[in-house]
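Quick question about two entries, pasted in order.
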Amino acid sequence: MNFLTESHRFAEIILENDPQFSSDWKQVKNVIKSIYDGDIIRAFNKISKGKDKSISIALNALFRERFIALGWNNQPYIFQAPHLQTDSTWRLDFAKSGTIAIEVAYNHGEAVSWNLIKPVLASNINLMTRQTVTQIGIVITATKDLKKVGGFDGVVGPYEKYVQYLKPMEFQLTAPLNIIGLLPPRTFKIEHYQIPGIRKKLGRVKLIVNFKKNPSGSFSIRNKGGTYKGRIYCYNKY
């Protein structure tokens, strides 16, 4: 996947240039770039089985699989206090102890402030004893274009809204933060439909490119994005 970034308190400069963080930051970028259209479609079809509206669950599954494989802590609690370990409220999505806290956020726009605050709590000294201690936060979310193409609900807070919140919350967001906005796939979109008698909208994959079958039985197409191999497996170049 391609993505945009917006840096708060020089987060990206620190991530790119400080040896303490650069290796973990490179892993974050590589995880996102390693997710191709075909990966998303396969995960969506396998997990959703026609029951979901968007690719959010598929993306979450892909992130979880790949971050865990690289040794990131999955769903770590921010604080040690038992009464703050009863639900997901005080929990991050991923973290590397001592360096980076990650929140993956596709929820309601009203939760934007809280999603920005959570990695800051893990990255700043607090009166409560922290279980997860980091120094920089990353929020991964969907751009407006991905919301539209990926079938997300209209109330989901997009990357652009997170960026707008950084300046008004300057003195609340006291730790460096890097906001990542995921860009849409190039070969498909999620089409919504309804089953008669059921009010809930469902999503299904609709390919938006034409594929040519090769003599070998594989499929390929060349355009400005690169060469597709298989039906929708990968690009040679982003």
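Here is the second entry:
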Amino acid sequence: RDARDALDARDARDALDALDALAALDALDARDALDARDARAALDARDARAARDALDALDARDARDARDALAARDALAARDALDEQLAAHRLRRFAAWVIQGYGWGWWYRFDMSLLATAHVGAVERQDVKLQRWTKPVYDAFLAGAWFLFFTEDTLYWIAKPQVHVEEVPRDRGDGRGRRLHNATGPAIDSDVEPLYFWHGVMVPSFVITRPDLIEIRHITNEQNAEVRRVMLDRFGTERYMREIGAKPIDASDYGTLYRADLPGDPEEFLVMVEVENSTAEPDGTFKKYMLRVPPTVKRARDAVAWTFGVDPEKYELAVQT
């Protein structure tokens, strides 16, 4: 019995060991399966990430390509628009050149004011045949037509320009004269080519419409003395003196006298006197002013006296007393 019990115990133990071994094997298989699943999941995740990255890269490239294509299209459109503008500008400039009378050939022009007078004669003479073409010309002139131009296949008409003038005293005799001037736009507002005048002097358009664009180089490089003076006026003589670093030629209790030569014209230069206001501002400071004086003035005292319209000696005496 003891031997049988011992055998049974051994068999039971072996069975238990076998069961444990089986359980261990199952555990290993389960772990392997889990590892495999994790590995597959990891692989799937990596593949998914790679795929996503690939898609992102593709989307980015497509987006970049689309952006580049859009930019290229915009650039082409802008270039085309610019080309169209330049072509229109060149055509307009050529037309202006022709209309102003500098070019001839198979272009012809007619002054409507001259043609319109033919209708007056036709009416006076009761020439019905002549009135058939002079009446429309006469009506067109009264309605504002100025010039007629025609080519082999096109008829152009130009409106009468709007002219802006200012009244000025005549140099001789009584009455007042007129000269071209417009402070805000063209003095001759024409379909052909607007012309800009400042107190009778023709200047570039920006001098009138955008004086803030005037630079020192525009003034110094301008060869026409009258145009240069207008630019100085619009730019500001005081500002000009300060920005070019004008040197003082005389200083005293009356003020400081500055002179600035204008490049390209040794006969023309600016002379200005800087004075200090005798009345204090609310904050206690005293403002300084730059006053333009004749180029012949050599002393600050004489310059200040000139601004008051008195003799320098009398001005000095008045100041002392």
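Reply: DSSP finds nine helices and 13 strands in the chain. The mean pLDDT is 77. Hope that helps.
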